[in-house]
Recover the amino acids of this structure.
């Protein structure tokens, strides 16, 4: 029987150090300062952004990273559907939390970009941010784009959400959680014609909220379309069109129905189930995901940690996509 290669990510032995003991890190991955760059360069740096001053409704997502760390202690590294052990293929580390300024969105985004720029090896370490509200996605997208060599035309974007987040401004604020993608498109960080928004649903303040995305060629797969074969075919076609193009994945937990993910600040009923969310993520196998975020977990509104637990499994799904792609 062939021997498996040594693990690239050293995890605590759950039979020696129980999952309910010790200091919580994302999925029990080692701290980035404890990983030797010489022996195992970090492939993914996961870091928290405890910030929610960009919200338009319920605050509290600043406590999201802490809640996800805690809930992720029972996440295990072997992904059955992809038949890959992320700890064997990838070197993954918890990079702590980015510095934030709760009184300033712009200063926070700048500090997050600077923090992310210093993580691991800029040429090879990929960034996964855990929010916090969706405004922080702009910062991690910008840092990812810069580390990718600032590609002209921007990155492709796979966006799971109930909301398009392309509103120009709310109460005069242009960088809140309703606006990360309009800003990223304006700044050339992402290519709107290589952007797909999956799970969009719910009533709007005005039909004008759809104008920017439609005018710029964003592919919108609403919840109703997602429930039909046409929706899945459109996603498959989008994935095929990307080939090996660098892509960023952003996952707002409110894309999931509040019956399955109640811990979020802008819940939208009629969403996908947690099982559907994982299944949709698995259809992205083969996509070259070079950065990601998981945002909008609000633990004060959570029930029995089910939202934070789902978010921690979304993290594993994202890592497994990259591990499966490298293991081919």
């Amino acid at each position: 029987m062939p021997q498996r290669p040594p693990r690239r990510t050293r995890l605590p032995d759950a039979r020696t150090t129980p999952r309910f003991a010790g200091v919580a890190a994302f999925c029990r991955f080692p701290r980035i300062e404890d990983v030797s760059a010489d022996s195992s360069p970090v492939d993914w740096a996961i870091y928290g952004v405890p910030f929610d001053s960009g919200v338009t409704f319920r605050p509290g997502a600043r406590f999201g990273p802490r809640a996800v760390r805690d809930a992720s202690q029972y996440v295990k590294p072997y992904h059955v559907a992809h038949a890959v052990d992320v700890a064997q293929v990838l070197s993954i580390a918890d990079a702590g939390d980015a510095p934030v300024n709760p009184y300033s969105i712009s200063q926070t985004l700048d500090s997050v970009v600077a923090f992310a720029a210093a993580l691991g090896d800029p040429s090879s370490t990929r960034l996964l941010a855990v929010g916090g509200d969706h405004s922080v996605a702009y910062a991690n997208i910008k840092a990812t784009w810069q580390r990718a060599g600032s590609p002209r035309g921007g990155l492709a974007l796979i966006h799971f959400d109930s909301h398009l987040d392309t509103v120009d401004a709310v109460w005069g604020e242009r960088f809140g959680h309703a606006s990360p993608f309009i800003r990223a498109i304006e700044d050339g960080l992402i290519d709107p014609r290589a952007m797909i928004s999956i799970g969009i649903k719910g009533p709007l303040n005005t039909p004008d909220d759809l104008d920017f995305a439609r005018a710029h060629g964003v592919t919108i797969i609403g919840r109703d379309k997602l429930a039909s074969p046409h929706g899945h075919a459109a996603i498959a076609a989008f994935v095929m069109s990307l080939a090996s193009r660098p892509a960023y994945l952003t996952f707002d937990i409110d894309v999931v129905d509040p019956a399955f993910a109640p811990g979020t600040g802008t819940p939208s009923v009629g969403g996908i189930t947690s099982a559907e969310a994982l299944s949709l993520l698995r259809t992205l196998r083969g996509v070259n995901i070079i950065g990601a975020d998981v945002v909008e977990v609000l633990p004060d509104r959570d029930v029995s940690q089910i939202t934070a637990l789902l978010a921690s499994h979304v993290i594993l799904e994202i890592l497994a996509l990259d591990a499966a792609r490298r293991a081919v």
Q: What stands out?
A: The first strand starts at residue 44 and ends at 49. The chain has one domain: 26-327. The radius of gyration is 18 Å.
